[in-house]
From TrEMBL:
It comes from Marinobacterium halophilum. It holds the Pfam family PsiE. It is a multi-pass membrane protein. It comes from the Bacteria. GO terms for cellular component: plasma membrane. InterPro entries: P_starv_induced_PsiE-like (IPR020948). Signal peptide: none annotated. This is Uncharacterized membrane protein (DUF373 family). It is found in: Cell membrane. The chain crosses the membrane at residues 20-42, 54-78, 90-107, 119-137. The keyword Nucleotide-binding does not apply. Keywords: Cell membrane, Membrane, Transmembrane, Transmembrane helix.
Amino acid sequence: MEKTPHDEKLLQALGCLIKWSVRLLAVLMVFVIMMGVVDVGWTLYEKLMTPPHYILTISDMLATFGAFMAVLIAIEIFINITIYLRDNVIHVKIVIATALMAISRKVIILDLDNTPAEYLWGIALIVVAMSIAYFIVQRYGSDEGGH
């Protein structure tokens, strides 16, 4: 099947639309990151102002860590978007690292007293799988054109 000039124009227009969509996602992600930073500050302020004042309990710290990690994950996603804009490819190693950070956040804020064993086994399996994937990509993969 041959590509016609009409097909080429359509593909070019769709590619342009995707490029602008990714740019919009980058702008929106910066907004999300800024709101996340505000949320981290607000969370920390609320925890410090709740009696006993200026003292963070372990649960307060875990809530704050969770908010911090959410912002860091958003920054990693922004980096993924900007690399895609620059190189027009998805870098697998960065995506896997972002996924590892997201599952790490989940582990950090996990309430072990109220989490079923099956859920913990599932998270453990995800962590192991993502770690192996990262190791393989780091060791054997090329991050150039990382589809």
